[in-house]
Amino acid sequence: MKFYNTLSGEKEIFTPNQPGKVSMYVCGITAYDYCHIGHARAAVVFDVLVRFLRFSGYEVTFIRNFTDIDDKIIKRAKESGMSSQAVAEKYIAAYYEDMELLGVLQADIEPKATEHIQPMQDLIQKLLNTGHAYATPDGDVYFRVRSFPDYGSLSGRNIEDLKSGARIEPGEAKEDPLDFALWKKSQPDEPSWSSPWGQGRPGWHIECSAMSEMYVGLPLDIHGGGQDLAFPHHENERAQSEAASGKTFVKYWLHNGFVRVKSEKMSKSLGNFITIRDIFQDYRPEVLRFFLMGKHYRSPLDFSRENLQESERSLKRLLQTRRQAESALENQKWNAQNLPQDMTAEFQSSADLWRKNLEDDLNTAGALGHLFTQNRLINRLLDQKSLRKSKEGKQLLTAFLHELDQLAQILGLPLRDPSKMLAELRRSKAERNTIRIELVEQLIAERQKARQAKDFEQADAIRDQLSALGVTLMDTPNGPDWDVD
Ligand SMILES: [Zn+2]
Fold first, then answer.
1. What is the pLDDT, as a whole number, of residue 172?
2. How far is the CA of 255 from the centre of ligand 1 (A)?
3. What is the mean pLDDT of residues 258-273?
4. Longest dimension (CA), the chain
5. pLDDT, tens digit, 9 for 90 and up, residues 143-165
6. Any bridge partners for residue 483, and if so which?
7. Are 347 and 439 part of one and the same domain?
8. Single residue among 232, 267, 282 that ends a domain in this structure
9. What single string gives the DSSP state of each residue in 278-326?
10. Cα of 464 from ligand 1 centre, angstroms
11. What is the DSSP letter of 36?
12. N or C: which end of the chain has fewer CB within 10 A?
């Protein structure tokens, strides 16, 4: 297995610190608003990574934190008249709802910053004792960036360049504009904790350093997050952790690329963000998940409704084949015929390539492509009537479906109940196109009656009516079926 390590700028062979075990920490959300598609991307990328590492036999301890105290949360609390805690709880609950629909598994440990104030203070004290930090008379504590000579190397920044862009804000008693806060004195109306340096609250970066070391020890095998976290957040985490412990903080740094809208990064600050729940109004969660895996995680991903619809069509193709295969397994009479071995070999090689793609820096787009190779083979099997009727053909088809199912499952795509899922995809598309499902079903029933009464003129008229609504009617051996154009 190989991963691109942001620190070295190269793909490296993955060798965890302890054989067979992986510790992985991904920075979670700051809980002050609903998650947007950029958050969804990071969540899905690292969800696939965890699933794939486990599938590959690793025992994974996965930590994803919640930042539940922060300037943005305090600001939101003041605006809304809620407490900071209530704001954080509200958006953490919303996060869980979104992630469950998106098929993102919960992490093994999901620590909240406010529940780990003591370990953070201990770490800050350690940095003070070793001269890597200093407290100001006001009650702030800063990290002394120049005490960590390797600062900037994770995000590829030069300390002199950083210095020219940094400045000391009024009221800050920093020694150097580069220094960042470990502990902040709080205002009287803000949440605060007592500390050796006065009433205050932790800076943002210290929580990940303290909580990761506390739960899994150093070094972490994998530390992940969105590309925008590399600087300053991860750079600062690394400086704190390595300065305090003298150990390597992280072996492999993985960062996913941005989601873009019309070539611009989707972000809160640019105001061009679309929340996950906005999308769930119009599309099935599985469609969004499929879309998010369609590009390599390090590449930018261009969001548009057209691209989502393309993903919806692709997912439907997998489900339709599966539904057809399941009905063939139920309804066909099977008797022995000859069976080509090459198809099994082709199927197996596609499964191998699926795995190789994921092993090569988590190439989900390539892995998805191999699901479609397998889908084509299943279709080929279904098209060969003689094969379809053989006992071996039945076994082969069952084995293919089972394998495809497993591979899709690692990507978090549920294919197991194709009829139900197709009906849900159809419902969401009908709703987007303001087609009333009850009306469609009523018209189809009327057409059936007309056909039974041999009133074909009326039956055709109803078909035209459905077509004008944007509905395609298909007469299948199991009766009429329909879809949205
Ligand atoms: Zn973090």
1. 81
2. 12
3. 86
4. 93
5. 999 999 999 999 999 988 888 77
6. 472
7. no
8. 282
9. HHHHHS-HHHHHHHHTSS-TTS-EEE-HHHHHHHHHHHHHHHHHHHHHH
10. 58
11. B
12. C
Q: Model confidence at 167, in pLDDT bands (50, 70, 90)?
A: confident
Which residues, in sequence order, are CB contacts of 274 under 8 Å at separation 6+?
36, 37, 261, 266, 303
Q: What is the mean pLDDT of the chain?
A: 93
Tell me the residue type at 402. Answer: H
The angle at the Cα of 418, spanning 417 to 420, to the nearest 5 degrees, equals 70
Q: Is residue 427 part of a domain?
A: no
Give the three-state DSSP class for 159.
Answer: helix
Task: State in Å: Cα 28 to ligand 1 middle.
Answer: 7
Number of domains present in the structure of the chain: 3
**Which domain-ending residue is among 396, 419, 442?**
419
pLDDT tens per residue, range 234-260: 999 999 999 999 999 999 999 999 999
For 453-479, write each residue's pLDDT tens digit. 999 999 999 999 999 999 999 988 778
What pTM did the predictor assign? 0.94
pLDDT band at 279 (very low <50, low <70, confident <90, very high): very high
Say if 79 falls within a structural domain. Answer: yes
Give pLDDT tens digits for 72-116: 999 999 999 999 999 999 999 999 999 999 999 999 999 999 999
Strand ranges of the sheet holding 264-265, from the earlier edge strand across to the other edge? 264-265, 259-261, 301-303
* Ligand 1 midpoint to CA 144 (Å): 19
Alpha-carbon distance of 264 to 254, in angstroms, equals 22
Q: Are residues 139 and 20 in the same domain?
A: yes
Q: Are 186 and 92 in a shared domain?
A: yes
CATH code assigned at 212: 3.40.50.620
Q: Is residue 38 part of a domain?
A: yes
- Per the model's pLDDT, the better-predicted residue between 330 and 93 turns out to be 93
Enumerate residues with CB within 5 Å of ligand 1 (an ion). Answer: 27, 208
pLDDT at 335: 46
Angstrom distance (rounded) from CA 144 to CA 133: 5
CB atoms within 10 A of CB 224: 27
Q: What is the distance in A from the centroid of ligand 1 to the CA of 382?
A: 50
Ligand 1 centre to CA of 243 (Å) is: 16
Q: How far is CA 251 from CA 22, 58, 202, 224, 395, in A?
A: 11, 16, 26, 11, 45
Q: Which of 170, 186, 168, 169 is nearest to 178 (CA)?
A: 168
Q: Is residue 66 part of a domain?
A: yes
Ligand 1 centre to CA of 112 (Å) is 12
Closest CA to 28 of 90, 104, 111: 111
